[in-house]
Automatic annotation (TrEMBL):
This is Trigger factor. Residues 1-147 form the Trigger factor ribosome-binding bacterial domain. It comes from the Bacteria. GO terms for biological process: 'de novo' cotranslational protein folding; protein transport; protein unfolding. One of its GO terms (molecular function) is ribosome binding. PANTHER family: TRIGGER FACTOR CHAPERONE AND PEPTIDYL-PROLYL CIS/TRANS ISOMERASE (PTHR30560), TRIGGER FACTOR-LIKE PROTEIN TIG, CHLOROPLASTIC (PTHR30560:SF3).
Amino acid sequence: MNISKQTIDDLNAVLTLTVEKADYETRVNDALNNYRKKVQMPGFRPGKVPAGMVKKMYGKSILADEINKLVSENLSNYITDNKLNLLGEPLPSEKQQLVDFDANESFEFIFDIATAPEFEADLSKKDKLPYYTIAITDEMIDQQIKSVTGRFGKNEVVDVISDQSMIKASLVELDANGNAKQDGIQVDETVISMMVAKDDAERNKLVGSKVGDAVVMNLAKAYPNANELSYMLKISKEQAEGLTSDFKVTVNEITEFKYAELNQDLFTQLYGEGVVNNEEEFKNKVKEELANNLAFESDYRFQLDAREKLVAKFDIKLPEAFLIRWIKATNHGNDKLTDEQINAEMPKFIEDLKWQLIKNKVIEANKLEIDHQDVLAAAKQAARIQFMQYGLSNIPEDYLENYAMDMLNKEEQRRQFAQGAINTKVLNFIKEAVKLDEKELSRDEFNKLFENN
């Protein structure tokens, strides 16, 4: 088989494959013989159908199939052997003539290809990139401590109702004279949250009450949301919407959520024996954890800024016309896009591709590699973040590693963690190679950086 390459420009080329009879004849004959052994036809025993009859009935489709396989194999081998760095995949040329398997013995196949642009991703201290950190305030530390103590808090029985209480109570609907309404609503036990009451005057009627006390109040005013009221009174939403009666509320139980105390038991539960021994050390640990968590946000912002600056610096040219053709040719399935959607998304696709090419060039030029330990570290970090969301900071290292290994057993997750690991290496390399313009911002100022992204 003869394969020739015609260069159109720096990014586009045409591959022409000429297939002669000698290239495919043996393959086709072998395929016909194998098919003859399996084909079943009335009047013939299996494997005894005449070869001529098999060729007459199935020869054309087998010929086309074998030639297509041959073209695909040789095209792939040519690209590999010649180390062509393609963008997308080869596309049948728009100049391709219709292949006539009946009239010809030699065939020509033409493919358009696009190659990645050649450029050097040179980075130095002359390149200045912003790196934003978030200032940790006392308020942020206090909020984090409240979150931590809240996760380890619990509901406790108290003696007196406050505006933070949860109440179990029995309810009786009253008539205009303050007596139990005939055929009115009666609930033996329901739960009332003081924190969600909307009317202060009605809520304050309960504040200060104790178990056994009875209070008359208008529940519809205190809880105007019909869904909440219907749940409390065990009636339909429609009934709740028209309710105006007062109710006698008899208090059966009072509880309040109590945050965990800052003591050694909590410190040990969070971090293990002897790691944190007092409130000052606990606050420092919380601040350290906040800094680690916020570093992820800083790195994410840095990735966006590095992408913007470096894509602009290297000014990479891409074969956009080919890429549009390739996307449209591979655009199928349930998520198929319209031509209008493809055209609208192309600028973002082009920018994404340029950034990927820059990262690939950094990896190649600086021989950046990842191994199993890098991927495992990425999985462990993801697992650690998951556990921290549930207030679990003191996870044994062996348990954390086993959990991460379980995640890596799933091929898709392993691929994602591997991609994350190499991406981290690239960004760390860029940080070291360029000059960082470090700026500390407040949380609000940092958030505003994303308003135009």
